[in-house]
Write a structure and sequence with these properties.
The strands form 3 sheets. Strands 1-4-5-8 form a 4-stranded mixed beta sheet. Strands 2-3-7-6 form a 4-stranded antiparallel beta sheet, with helices on one face. Strands 9-10 form a two-stranded antiparallel ribbon. Helix 4 runs antiparallel to helix 5, helix 5 runs antiparallel to helix 7 and helix 7 runs antiparallel to helix 8. The radius of gyration is 21 Å and the shape is globular. The longest helix is centred in the middle third of the chain and has 37 residues. It has about 400 residues and is of the alpha+beta class. It is about 55% helix and about 15% strand.
Length: about 400
């Protein structure tokens, strides 16, 4: 299908697919079993100039936008959702200062991220704050020319491998959510330590750890935008990155469909391939239809984000919800089509299901996204009503 992509976007998609098939495919089962971060694959993505796909050319990137990033994420996810999130999490960690950082911050970090010399991470979630981002308890109290950070972040992707972290902390706890700020913290800062790697259901090759801050001092020049603007930075970052989760989900679903097709055409029962049975054909047809719809919605949301469309946050939520639900259903149906083989760990289908589940949870659960969509719809309706 013609998705209206530019020549550069077609090249990005082709490059990502080549890396996925040549570098990721031979390693995905081993990386999953060993729960090993794919360092060599990240180097291959850097050599292909894909690490900076979303970074402006002035800072060594390809100058692409949200859609360009989504294209690469989908192709990687088609083979391995874990490798894809290792790649995409760099954008999540970088978006705060890419969107709102000073020129000094951009010049310092973006070229290193674009070249693959450095990775990034985003520290928002805490033991008592996830969907309720305004309830964070990590503090960054001003002290002279520094901020002093104390607290714990939980389930942080790329933790331990990132060289730079965007940490959401409260500089003025007495102000509640209005005191929340976004602060850059570099790996190795005194008082900053990374916890043990989490044992996860899926995306096992990605690094997910706690971050601990114990009187960690960082210079005030590491503040992004202004004090008290952290909630805005967080929401705009997530709105920008959510289409990427949708792209990850589409890639996982596409991979599951391809595995189901391959198995169903080779598995013989009652003297014929199981793909000849109408019950299986209907499942495959539904998978393919839903994946195509999800892909188009993700592309639409990404284009809206790149264009600065006011509808972009709502579309990003829609893309994330729909695509992740499609991924989960496609993976479950794929296992059903493959039967007992699909349930076995030496066959890739069960990994698609394990990897798909997280797309319904991180960067805002699907329940929260439905709240966002519903509230926005009601607000739009009331605004139209007032104009009449």
């Amino acid at each position: 299908m013609d998705y209206g992509l530019t020549e550069l976007q077609e090249e990005i998609r082709s490059l990502a697919r080549r890396v996925a098939e040549e570098k990721v495919l031979p390693e995905r089962a081993r990386l999953d079993e060993a729960e090993e971060y794919p360092h060599e694959i990240m180097k291959s993505l850097a050599k292909a100039d894909l690490m900076g796909v979303y970074i402006p050319e002035d800072y060594g990137g390809l100058g692409g936008g949200c859609l360009d990033l989504c294209l690469a994420v989908e192709e990687l996810s088609r083979v391995c959702g874990a490798v894809a999130v290792c790649f995409a999490a760099n954008a999540l960690g970088a978006y705060p200062f890419l969107l709102h950082g000073s020129q000094e911050q951009k010049k310092k970090y973006l070229p290193k991220l674009a070249s693959g010399e450095m990775f990034a991470a985003f520290g928002l979630t805490e033991p008592n704050a996830g969907s309720d981002a305004g309830a964070i308890q990590t503090t960054a109290i001003p002290d002279g020319d520094c901020y002093v950070l104390n607290g714990t972040k939980q389930w942080i992707t790329n933790a331990g491998v990132a060289g730079v972290y965007t940490i959401i902390a409260n500089c003025r706890p007495e102000r509640g959510p209005r005191g929340i700020s976004a602060i850059i913290v570099e790996a190795g800062a005194p008082g900053f330590t990374v916890g043990a790697k989490e044992k996860k259901l899926g995306i096992r090759a990605s690094a997910t750890c706690e971050l601990h801050f114990d009187n960690c001092r960082v210079p005030k020049e590491n503040l992004i935008l202004k004090e008290g603007m952290g909630f805005r930075v967080t929401m705009e970052t997530l709105n920008k990155s959510r289409p990427g989760i949708g792209a990850q989900a589409v890639g996982i679903a596409q991979g599951a469909l391809e595995q189901a097709l391959e198995f169903s055409t080779q598995r013989i029962q009652f003297g014929q391939p199981v793909s000849s049975f109408q019950a299986v054909q209907h499942m495959l047809a539904d998978m393919a239809t839903q994946i195509e719809a999800a892909r188009l919605l993700v592309h639409h949301a990404a284009r809206a984000s790149d264009a600065g469309d006011p509808q972009a946050p709502k579309l990003a939520a829609m893309a994330k919800v729909f695509a992740s639900d499609v991924a989960m259903k496609a993976a479950v149906d794929g296992i059903q089509i493959c039967g007992g083989a699909g349930y076995m760990r030496d066959y890739p289908m069960e990994k698609y299901m394990r990897d798909a589940k997280i797309t319904q949870i991180y960067e805002g659960t699907n329940q929260i996204q439905r709240n966002v969509i519903g509230i926005d719809l009601v607000k739009e309706f009331n605004q139209r009503k007032k104009k009449k």
